[in-house]
Design brief:
By secondary structure, the chain is of the alpha/beta class. It has 11 helices and 13 strands. It has 2 domains: 127 residues, Aspartate Aminotransferase, domain 1 (Alpha-Beta Complex); 226 residues, 3-Layer(aba) Sandwich (Aspartate Aminotransferase, domain 2). 34% of the residues lie in helices and 16% in strands. 47% of the residues are buried. Bound molecules: pyridoxal-5'-phosphate. Pfam families: Aminotran_1_2. Keywords: Aminotransferase, Transferase. One of its GO terms (molecular function) is transaminase activity. This is Aminotransferase.
């Protein structure tokens, strides 16, 4: 690990530290969490099962068999329970994957804007990261000519994240296959961050998990995003390569050792009802997306392509604006008391900020997305 990278605070943390407390959050990337009572009503969740877990021992390192089977059943076709390693959130899944897969000097390619840890974690593992920007004027389409120039036989890993944070862009199955073909052609690994898989705004747009399609693909997912359950820190890695999985387990042994049995129990109860939970969240996301679209004509300084999936979109500042995303977000915090994360938090210089469509309570604040 490059220890010097630890001296640089992630952009999101640095931005947050510069702001006053008590702002109204318009940045969340996960749907509003359901209460235990709502879950009981929706899927017959049984909180009464939880206390007896306290007398149990550590969970198995890779996650219990029951949990990994529930994940495999809910998410994958050919990928099996034995191919899954559970982690403390997707963040640990990323760390474990990068440390197990990458060596100093390895070349990694990533699409931007991007959830910052996807690049930072690769750099911490010693890799050199090249970025290719999605095309903002083409509804955040992949820039295929640019990507094909950058991915070559020296590339160790291509990182993708669809449904995409922060833009809300989603790709088609044909485009996913094209990405896989590019990896096959250069024999490189694919890390597919699938934490928003399940939150497609239109049914029928769900992509297959990359791990089911390519033997060098690693799929990562988590309970906090598509399920809207950040309070349980439960993510996972699906990887069909036994040697790499063994290395991942070794990394995990050095950090969290194993997951929490309480979290495991909650996830085991939730996972068989994944579609019910996704449908519930989809209703709210679609509602907020339409409300945002209705507000945009009153916000002519913003250009915002409606998100196709996930809980966020990226609002660009019109070119007439001389403000950077960072200055706009700072002014928004000071003048309107609203918190959004600017472009700098997503490894991009496209001026703008990430805007949430997650929560019923935030929509009423969209008309305030302006500064003097
Ligand atoms: C694309 C992406 N991957 C991974 C994560 C990490 O998920 P968690 O915070 O649940 O570990 C996030 C969190 O925002 C994310 O947006």
């Amino acid at each position: 690990m490059a220890k010097t990278d630890l001296n640089t605070e992630p952009a999101m943390a640095a931005f947050l530290r510069s702001l006053p407390a008590g702002l109204i959050s318009l940045h969340s990337s996960h749907p509003a969490p359901l209460t235990a009572a709502q879950l009981t009503e929706l899927i017959d969740f049984k909180p009464a099962q939880l206390p007896h877990i306290l007398s149990q021992d550590y969970a198995p390192m890779a996650g219990s068999e029951e949990l990994r089977q529930a994940i495999a059943d809910a998410h994958y076709t050919s990928t099996q329970a034995d191919h899954i390693l559970t982690t403390c959130g997707a963040q640990e899944a990323l760390f474990v994957t990068m440390q197990a897969l990458l060596n100093k000097g390895d070349q990694v390619v990533c699409l931007t804007p991007v959830f910052e840890p996807l690049t930072l974690q690769a750099k911490m593992a010693g890799a050199q990261v090249s970025t290719v920007s999605l095309l903002p004027d083409q509804q955040w389409a992949i820039d295929w000519p640019a990507l094909k120039k950058v991915v070559n036989k020296k590339t160790r890993l291509l990182i993708i994240n669809f449904p995409h944070n922060p833009t809300g862009k989603h790709i088609t199955e044909q485009e996913l296959n094209r990405l896989l073909e590019l990896c096959r052609q250069h024999d490189c690994w694919l890390l597919s961050d699938e934490v928003f898989r399940g939150l497609e705004h239109q049914s029928g747009r769900r992509l297959p998990a990359a791990v089911d399609l390519y033997d060098k693909a690693i799929s990562i997912a988590v309970m906090s995003k598509a399920y809207g359950m950040p309070a349980i820190r439960l993510g996972w890695i699906a990887c069909r390569h036994p040697h790499l999985r063994q290395r991942m387990l070794t990394v995990k042994r050095h950090i969290s050792i194993c997951g929490s049995r309480l979290d495991e129990n909650v996830a085991i109860q939730i996972l068989p009802h994944s579609e019910t939970i996704f449908n519930h969240h989809r209703g709210q996301l679609n509602h907020n997306r339409s409300f945002l679209a209705d507000c945009l004509p009153q916000l002519p300084h913003l250009r915002c392509h409606p998100p196709e999936a996930g809980a966020t979109c990226f609002a660009r500042l019109n070119t007439q604006q001389t403000l950077t995303g960072q200055v706009f977000a700072e002014q928004l915090a000071q003048q309107q008391g609203l918190l959004v994360y600017p472009d700098t938090c997503f490894v991009t210089d496209i001026p703008g900020f990430r805007l949430s469509i997650a929560d019923a309570a935030i929509a009423e604040h969209y008309p305030l997305l302006k500064t003097d």
